[in-house]
Amino acid sequence: MDSLQYLMQGFGVALQPANLMWAFIGSALGTAIGVLPGIGPALTIALLLPVTISIAPTAAFIMFAGVLYGAMYGGSTTSILINTPGEAGSMMTALEGNKMARNGRGAAALATAAIGSFVAGTLATLALTFVAPFVAELAFIFKPADYFALTILAFCSVAVVMGSSRVRGFISLFIGLGIGVIGIDRMTGAPRLTFGVTDLLDGIELTVVLVSLFAVGEILFVASRYDPGQDQPLKVSGKWFTREDFDRSWKPWLRGTVIGFPMGTLPGGGSEIPTMLSYTLERKLSKHPEQFGHGAIEGVAGPEAANNAAAAGVLVPLLTLGLPTSATAAVLLAAFQNYGLQPGPYLFTSNAELVWGLIASLYIGNVMLLVLNLPLVGLWVKLLSIPKPQLYGGILVFAMIGIWGVSGSTVDLLVMVVIGLAGYVMRVYDFPIAPVLIGMILGPMAENQLRVALSAGQGNPLVLVETPISIGFLLVAVGVFFVPLLLKRLQR
Predict the structure, then answer these.
(1) Does position 233 have pLDDT exceeding 60, yes or no?
(2) How far is CA 195 from CA 126, 142, 177, 184, 420, in A?
């Protein structure tokens, strides 16, 4: 059965009334979250994890997908209107979008962002439909040494690319690896780093770490930098989308999609890099370069398309290899684990209804988001009038209730406070958060695959470089680590 047949079955799942309701809830919630500065999809999904245990897995992931895509749409609203990106991927949109709003063209900027998000999201989801099964088939030939090499590539990519310093990136990664080994060693049965606390024998729940870093650490950081004088959103004004705007936007939409989707599939690719590349490319190709820095519509269309295409690209390694390439993907992987599911090639055969229902829901969610964002943008702007102290306080209370409701453990609450404060310190000193999550999630997987490979090779370390796949991944990892250093040397 080919991908189109599976996709048709997925639409049969996604179009069920209950799943349509969850798709709409996720899309609306994601848009609202994207509009509110400082609150992203990773935080939202992390907060929803404790309260979605009673929901069927397919319905939950359809809602999470709506949150992911919706946040990409909503993040452009604050970038354009108040020059405050609701999402990291919307930073480049703010450069030209806010200038357009100040020049009385806010409506056109919001329109090109929404339509570009729809076009890129749909095309990227189409690519996901055909690429993901192919990658999943390739994953069946992976051996333990190949998976170990793949995790090493992920570690190097995330630590080097994310954040302003590779030293900070690797420190964050090792913190995550340290958290990941807490608990009983599965092979020997010996406790590790539990310090005699019995509640830590099962390890630290990923949900606790997610909520701590995002709900506690991020909110403390955002609240500490809150300035009441900035709460002055601009009104949506000016002409709507004209024919000239369309002529100047459709090529950037397509180019942004081509840049964003493959970058999203790479470890550490995220949404920041493709949006920057798209902005730079549009500036070079534009027939109106003099408008850049003063409100060029190409500078909104391209980055927004790249942003949404990257969001779909993130799902390829997550669904096919169980490899999270961003903070949001790490949270989604935790959601899979909460339901006792392990993303990877076997997920496409053992849970085909969930996977293809999820992919089909992305098409439906894109249509919902276009309808929600174009005519209702004024409604989303009103969310910016919510007093920030009450908003941040409510999120912290909701986080504590969620963690207590899952475990009922005071140790988990204490761990949440400690990791939350550590997350705040990390944000203050510009330590990236994503490597912590990816180190915690992939660390045990890397350890297990390393042990299995060495056991099969009777302790011979050369078993780790016996296959072309593992050699290729390790060479790329070395390149990711050393090539930027060599380029800096050459520039000097």
Answers:
(1) no
(2) 50, 37, 17, 12, 20
Q: Helix, strand, or coil here: 192? A: strand
User: Three-state SS across 45-56?
Assistant: HHHHHHHCCCCC
Alpha-carbon distances, residue 344 vs 68, 152, 294, 296 (angstroms): 20, 17, 46, 42
Coil vs helix vs strand at 183: strand
Secondary structure class of 267 (helix, strand, coil): coil
Q: Where are the alpha helices (DSSP H) in 186-326?
A: 206-211, 219-224, 243-265, 272-285, 298-313, 315-321
Question: Which residue type occupies 467?
Answer: T
Closest listed residue to residue 216, CA positions, set 386, 46, 341: 46
The mean pLDDT of 461-490, rounded to a whole number, is 82
φ and ψ at residue 232, rounded to 5 degrees = -135, 70
* 436-472 pLDDT, tens digit each: 877 887 788 888 888 888 888 887 888 888 888 888 8
Q: 64 in helix, strand or coil? A: helix
* Encoded tokens for 198: 């019995």
Residue entry with tokens 């369309």: 246
Residue 215 contacts residue 47 (beta carbons within 8 Å): yes
Contacts 24+ apart (CB under 8 A), 454-458: 456/144
Give 186: exposed, middle or buried? Use CB within 10 Å, 0-12, 13-18, 19+: exposed
- Reading the block at residue 468, the tokens are 């072309």
Amino acid making up residue 285? L
Which two tokens mark 8?
């048709």
Structure tokens at 70: 């919706």
CA angle at 128 for the pair 446 and 62, rounded to the nearest 5°: 85
State the Cα–Cα distance between residues 149 and 469, nearest whole angstrom.
8
Contacts of 385 (CB under 8 A, 6+ apart): 231, 233
Q: What is the largest CA-CA distance in the chain?
A: 71
What's the pTM? Answer: 0.72
Provide the 10 A C-beta neighbour count for residue 330.
Answer: 31
Say which residue the tokens 């309701």 belong to: 21
Q: What type of residue sits at position 166? A: R
**Residue 466: helix, strand or coil by DSSP?**
coil
Distance CA 245, CA 317 (A): 35
Q: State the DSSP H helix or E strand holding residue 400, giving kind and residue range, or none if neither.
A: helix 388-407
CB 154 within 8 A of CB 325: yes
- The per-residue pLDDT for 377 is 64
What's the token pair of residue 419?
A: 């990791």
- Side-chain-side CA neighbours of residue 444 (13 Å): 17
Residue with tokens 């994890």: 49
